[in-house]
Design goal:
CATH superfamily of one domain: tricorn interacting facor f3 domain
Strand order of the largest sheet: 7-6-10-4-3-13-15
Shape: globular
Structural class: alpha+beta
Number of helices: 20
Number of strands: 23
Bound molecules: ligand BES, zinc ion
Distance between the termini: 42 Å
Strand content: 15-25%
Oligomer: single chain
Helix content: 25-40%
CATH architecture of one domain: Sandwich
Length: 631
């Protein structure tokens, strides 16, 4: 493209941005199926002008080069007769762009890359252009991708690849309009080296193909952050008629046992909030380096193996990811500022599923533990911190780094308050209608507020004020009317904590019948100034340093580092070297980094562990330890 045209584009682009930011209303009138587009500060795309409605992906996976190479063909709907298509890209090389069936070459520019946002790919199109083909390959550092060598996998024989697209990393492996307010259907043809198997967030075939070619079809429209791919030596076990688990051969049996209640969970969820709209629900168990507990990729939840506790005590995570099939995947946060609409609703829904399967007592234990996390997060951030609001302002920040417990737990307690105030029957009917009305659409906090008023609160005079609706949605801190939940089971644990602090030896404490959640509450209730003798006594009695339960171990090791309880340091190192789940890594590295000596230890461990972690976890820990290349 000539420099003059380029300059012109920059100027016009700048003008449009200026005009847009001057706009008072963030909603644009062009829409698909009632889905109005909202300005999203985390995407360069302009869907209100031209929107991508379908993706045909044709790629091959090269483990030697750590590269995905191929073509993304994007079908367009052009509302304004625009001659420019803006896509998001990051960590990739664009080779060629052509238009329509004729594959007519066209001109394009890639803007300057910026931190975490990547670079806009600006393509010249015609008002009548139907399809844009982008030929590209990813760079080895593409942030969504983790390439594992055979030694980094469970049986050490084959390499493994998986993606993590949420929140804004889809653009690092597929050029796309990477905003959660956009939806598209997709197909994919993925070529991998046999005998590896490829699975996606789409219709999967649970069989290996001899030639390494796999075909996928996702007929329901999804936002780009739900695009997902994994490639490895996978096998499949059915759990029910529409559910199953994929994992590496040595892991699949254990996983199938752990997740035996999956079908019951789907039924419970459907009974609550309407039919499951995605045909199948499968779970993929990933390598321990997966940076999250779970990721709700449609039809195929990605899960960490650290929930395979051997006693099914950590399966709330499955209920959570399953619940996203409604809250998140059907009704989707329009921007990352509205993230609580995904996670708060899902946390609420998750606990309702758990209540149906395991009883109210169980649900309330989860809620009380959640309340503790919420209080702690608010204490750490400060009750007037803007990030303690439900409706966030993440402008200029990486949404991945800014996300806390607030959308999950403050969101949960807000919805629980609504349930308690209007009554469960009315509330459930409202939610069913909400999921039905907005299925396959995006939602903003303001739109939800309006819908809540017109379909629930307005019939109940004074209710919006009574529940302090505005305060909950838009103000920091925790409103005074936050429900207080009592759990008899955890009160009993509290008594044992007190008994211990008053001198009862651990062996004499009444811990009969305690589950993972009792233990978590127990450990988290211990004061930070516990003596080393007390730590040692607890450890002797309950073998906490040797716990095989990742959540219990994580809680205990955090305390151990805070108290500088040395006998647990070997276990700290082992834990940090054996898994890469950010939720477990962050607090340990953070606590270690508070003393010079601890920081040295952290750096020594991190040097070894870092190559094993996903870019998402590396990013976070790099910042905590001030790590630079060559550190
Ligand atoms: N969608 C989230 C994971 C996520 C959030 C990825 C933000 C990227 C950015 C997923 O549903 C989730 O919340 N996972 C939790 C587990 C859950 C039980 C709270 C996790 O990974 O810890
Ligand atoms: Zn979630």
């Amino acid at each position: 493209m000539c420099w003059r045209k380029c300059l012109q584009r920059v100027l016009i682009g700048g003008l449009v941005v200026a005009l847009l930011s001057a706009c008072t209303s963030d909603e644009h009138s062009n829409q698909i199926g009632g889905n109005a587009f909202v300005r999203d500060v985390h995407s360069f795309s302009r869907p209100w002008e031209v929107v991508v409605t379908h993706l045909d992906l044709d790629i091959s996976v090269d483990f030697e080069k750590k590269e995905i190479r191929g073509r993304a063909s994007l079908r367009l709907k052009n509302f304004t007769g625009s001659r420019t298509l803006y896509l998001d890209t990051r960590d990739m090389v664009i080779e060629r762009v052509t238009l329509d069936a004729e594959e007519t070459p066209t001109t394009f520019t890639v803007g300057n890359p910026t931190p975490f946002m990547g670079a806009p790919l600006i393509i010249d199109i015609l008002p009548e252009t139907q399809v844009v083909h982008v030929d590209y390959h990813t760079l080895p550092q593409a942030a969504a991708l983790q390439w594992l060598s055979p030694e980094q996998t469970a049986n050490g024989k084959y390499p493994f690849l998986f993606t993590q697209s949420q929140p804004i990393l889809a653009r690092s492996w597929i050029p796309c309009q990477d905003s959660p307010g956009i939806r598209m259907t997709y197909t994919a043809r993925v070529k991998v080296p046999p005998p590896l198997m490829a699975v996606m967030s789409a219709r999967n075939q649970p069989r290996k193909s001899a030639d390494g070619v796999y075909r996928f079809d996702m007929p329901q429209p999804i936002p780009p952050y739900l695009l997902a791919l994994a490639v490895g030596d996978l096998t499949f076990r059915a759990l029910g008629s529409r559910s199953g688990v994929y994992a590496q051969p040595g892991v699949v049996e254990k996983a199938a046992w752990e997740f035996a209640d999956t079908e019951k969970m789907i039924q419970a969820a459907e009974g609550l909030y309407g039919p499951y709209r995605w045909e199948r629900y499968d779970i993929l168990v990933l390598s321990p380096s997966f940076p999250f507990g779970g990721m709700e990729n449609p039809r195929l939840t990605f899960a960490t193996p650290t929930i395979l506790a051997g006693d099914r005590s950590l399966v709330a995570l499955i209920a959570h990811e399953l619940a996203h099939s409604w809250s998140g995947n059907l009704v989707t946060n329009a921007t990352w500022n509205d993230f609580w609409l995904n996670e708060g609703f899902t946390t609420y829904f998750e606990r309702r599923i758990m209540e149906l399967l395991y009883g109210k007592e169980y649900m309330d234990m989860l809620a009380v533990l959640g309340f503790r996390d919420l209080e702690q997060t608010i204490r750490e951030l400060g009750a007037d911190h803007p990030d303690t609001r439900l409706y966030l302002d993440l402008k200029g920040r990486d949404p991945d780094e800014a996300i806390t417990d607030i959308p999950y737990e403050k969101g949960y307690f807000f919805l629980r308050l609504l349930e308690e105030e209007v009554g469960r029957n009315k509330w459930d009917a409202f939610l069913r209608k909400y999921f039905e009305t907005f299925a396959f659409r995006s939602m903003t906090t303001q739109k939800f507020e309006h819908y809540l008023k017109t379909h629930l609160l307005n019939d109940l005079p004074g209710m919006a004020e009574k529940i302090r609706l505005h305060e909950w949605l838009y103000e920091p801190g925790l409103p005074e009317n936050c429900p207080r939940i009592a759990s008899n089971a955890l009160q009993q644990v509290e008594q044992q904590v007190q008994a211990f602090l008053q001198g009862t030896v651990p062996e004499q404490l009444d811990t009969r019948g305690w589950t993972t959640h009792h233990w978590l509450y127990f450990i988290r209730s211990l004061p930070e100034d516990l003596s080393l003798e007390q730590m040692a006594a607890l450890d002797r009695a309950f073998k906490l340093t040797r716990s095989g339960n990742s959540e219990i171990l994580s809680a205990w090791l955090q305390l151990a580092v805070t108290r500088q309880y040395r006998p647990a340091y070997a276990a700290v190192e082992k834990f940090l070297l054996s898994q890469g789940r950010r939720k477990f890594l962050r607090p340990l590295y953070q606590k270690l980094a508070t003393t010079p000596e601890g920081k040295q230890l952290a750096l020594r461990i991190y040097r070894k562990a870092r190559p094993m972690y996903h870019a998402i976890s590396r990013n976070t820990i790099d910042a905590i330890l001030g790590w630079h290349a060559g550190s």
